[in-house]
Amino acid sequence: MDQIHQGIYLQIDQTDKFKTINFTINFLEPLQKANISKRALLAAILENSNNTEKTPDQIAVHLENLYGANFSLSHYVEGQTSILSLSAICPAPQFLPEHEDVLHALVALIKKNLFEPAQEAGVAAFDQAIFNREQNNLKHKVQAYMDDKQYAAALATKSLYFGADNPVALPTTGRLADIEAISAANLWAYFEQLLVQDQIVITVTGDVAALDIKRIFDWPELSPRPKQTELPLFYQQPLAPEVNQGQQQLPVTQGKLNLMYQVPVTYYGPQYFDYLVANTVFGGSAQSMLFMNVREKLSLAYYANSNLDAFTGTVMVQTGIDSDKKDIVLSEIKNQLAHIQAGEVSDILIANAKKLLIDQFAQRSDSPFGRNLRYLFQFLQPAVVMDTPAFATAVNGVTKAAIQAAAANFKLQTIYAIEKRYEDATD
């Protein structure tokens, strides 16, 4: 990865494997509670407007004239790093009539959205009408998410485990109250700060010339960043002596039961692959212990899965259940983990879990955006493996004993349930 200027990095993956040119521009800062909603709202404003094209429809028309080129912005979080990411795609010139250069035109549009946003006349603030539109859209999006009880249960589980005000526990959109507290002026001030302070990682994948790409992305609008220490990435809190429990009664037809385990692992750190395979065996696939036994064999859950977050050292189990079966389901989840800890797992299940992980990795490698994301993660964590054979070797090297040892370190910390309230129950 080349450094264009201090704090601005460029990774070029020259390949003729794809008929498109794909790139990401990632603005990185340490995760801060006060900025989560601002970054989510910025993503919407900068995607959908600039100082002359002020609606999504106008941006879409512009992109249609670029042979269907496209870009989008999003905000997400990995551990303690906040990522405001722009992803873009355009056809490679050799596949266009007259070999037209769409990349330069797409970059010009993106630069206009980033550096010439619609501004309120004579004021250091975003155009008020655009701000109001995108703020309201984001509020509706957050409310729609919260109406999804599976999402709401997952969020409540994280809040219970990490603490309600811990930024690691917050949704990447922020909370409604935080969104409502943003103004067009204070968002503009924050955006100006972001442009000069965030570390920036640009990744490009496609059949491109390296020197041309370096010229295209050496933007005078982006000055060298202040010298910074390494971005904080991993988060792990002290192990609680007792399991923290919480529940809500809501008018739902399907209850929810979630568990949060703490695990001593970091993304691509020591024993990472042991925990990756152990989680896949436990509940990370449709052939896992939770799915095949709790859901299929015993019919105790409508869904049952687990997810490893190696940036926060957690495994979250999520299930949809009949509320009156909560205690039985909880017992059976613990029972399935105990089987893994005792080594009572078939060789076929382990082999299938490994194959699934390798196939998923290979599929992402066949996707330009998957490759771009992996380059970003490699910037954050240099130990990240980039090629499928090396990943397969690491996964296949995990033994049953290593899976047992990893499972033995799953420490239950949180139990959260949404139970049915018997009045006008709806999903």
From TrEMBL:
Location of the Peptidase M16 C-terminal domain: 182-356
Pfam families for this protein: Peptidase_M16_C
Lineage top rank: taxon: Bacteria
PANTHER family xrefs: INACTIVE METALLOPROTEASE YMFF-RELATED, METALLOPROTEASE
Signal peptide positions (record): none
SUPFAM superfamilies: LuxS/MPP-like metallohydrolase
Name of the protein described by the UniProt record: Peptidase M16 C-terminal domain-containing protein
MF GO annotations: metal ion binding
